[in-house]
């Protein structure tokens, strides 16, 4: 251990997305290759001597307790736990995290060491994995609010690969079998299903971890929500959602010492007649079992919407990944003609 193939694969995956900025400590990690990367894992991150590193992925992550702070992380999957090596800027982003993060090492800030926080979710504590629409993100749920993390991969391939690796690692866990199901009578079996709402697709792994996938109703709910935002301009039966993708809206700041741009996470939804940008809550839905009240905000909040017939032209950047698209709308009512978007991918 480890095999040459695994080391080569982990080395290839160890690349920070070019459009996201990270701290010096994570840049150091992204520069490690092959055996050096595995040795770094065992000497700095691994909690048990005999655990094996199986998969590495760079992703933006959200925590349930800080739903407004998206932070870059190096996600490491081993045979014992999932490790989230976090950008140290996250610790200073929100003052309400003092009880969530241990700040023992704050006196080292002025030294030559670069420290990162590592959030550990042991596989034995894992209860469920919710996969988002079109595999754009997934949420990992443990036994408390501290143990809920969403990985915003914005990439169906990365999501699929991680889920496959996670299932393989969970298969190695020795867990006591579930108790035998109690025989239910006819009324209790069907009486609780009278809500008329279809449950999401659930795959219960042999380790008893649930993998929950969205069903067709979620698209239907989303189409209904989009139709509401369109002020009845079209009839619902004719409304089709052609594209759902997690993207970034580019806000360009001019006049500063150097022209800079910030990336605002948005959900882009394209229908046959309109283009929408939504602020989506990726972490709070579906509600965890221990949640005592609904989240403070709706799952989807409309940020902007334009008619396709007002679209004048689309400007495309020349870089390969991620692709920058500028939508120019000929919209007389709205003076803000330019819409900048950076998309991880746009449908064929």
Automatic annotation (TrEMBL):
Q: Would you say which domain of life the source belongs to?
A: Eukaryota
**InterPro entries, per database record:** PH_domain-containing_M2, PH_NISCH_C, PH_PLEKHM2
Q: Which residue numbers delimit the PLEKHM2 PH domain?
A: 114-178
Its keywords, alphabetically, are: Cytoplasm
GO CC list = endosome membrane
Instruction: Domain (Nischarin C-terminal PH): give its ranges.
Output: 241-347
- Tell me the PANTHER family matching this sequence: PLECKSTRIN HOMOLOGY DOMAIN-CONTAINING FAMILY M MEMBER 2 (PTHR46556:SF1)
Protein name, please?
A: NISCH protein
